[in-house]
Amino acid sequence: MQEISFEDFNKLKKNSYVLIDIRDEGLRNYGMIPGAVAIDFDRDSEEIRADIEKLPEGKTCILYCEIGRRTKEFNEEQFPEGREYYSLEGGYIGYVRALLANEGDAEEKQKKAEKSIQKKFHKQLFTPFAKACKNYKLIEEGDRIAVCISGGKDSMLMAKLFQEIQRHRQCNFELTFLVMDPGYNKDNRALIESNAKALGIPITIFESDIFDTVDTIEKSPCYLCARMRRGYLYSKAKELGCNKIALGHHYDDVIETILMGMLYGAQVQTMMPKLHSTNFEGMELIRPLYLVRESDICAWRDYNDLHFLQCACHFTETCTTCHEDGTTSSKRLETKKLIAELKKENPFVESNIFKSVENVNLSTVIAYKKDGVRHHFLDEY
Known about the structure:
The protein contains 15 helices and 13 strands. By secondary structure, it is of the alpha/beta class.
């Protein structure tokens, strides 16, 4: 399919074309180009054709994906005749980069983002962040913490919250804002660098070849990628003199993981607020967004008109995000929808899921594992 550049796209009359977002729902939730319509292209070709035929007649169809590769490879012959079809160069990431290039004073953007944490979103963001740090003892005197930044909304906000809590000077600790480039394309890396600069986050970037390594893996590439990324982050953080790495998993990640473990893994477990590393002596992993709701993170992002990476994976655009448990984006999205449906009937369902792993009664559990050893209720019956 022929590409159209953003420069030429911006010259078109708005009533002459229709913009079509072909990405999955998980990616669309992180933002769409204004005015675009969503059409799911992971379906039968006849269903896709039927949806295109419903669009206003006589208008050029401009399709976009995440980075522009998938739409460029489309064959126009598979679509209804009588229209012109183009692939938007650079996709959604290209659109975001164009926005960043045309934005005004970066210093003003940083001030607005920081003020919104201190004022408008203090209760929703800083308070639960500080509460998690205190309740789970995530920050301790003399810590040197590597704040791991993937480029997404969660890790970028986590970096700003760390800067804010450090200003309070209630505990002496040091921060290193660590970005690993596992093989990003130049657009994705540039987006991370642009956002970090605009938000006043002094990042340290190091490179690895993880994407090339998992490129040939057919079974569970996201699981392997996540595991390898963590290993590289631990290693680099230790090299830089840090004793902890901080990851940006939030409250919704926690409850989704609990439910997915039951539904797909036949186990009851949770994503812990902190862990000792088993392979890097003296290192810990902490999750200071543990009590922060994803909806509040999104509200902060949108209020400040920020645009972040979601998945920067270079060999698939259908992966919404890489999770350490190896679950696919479709499973996580399905679980998210299930929780939303349950919440309609029971507004406490999310907190109940969260608290369920704080209220485990071993007297009513048939079997459990501790330190790799299986215990059965008949052992002491």
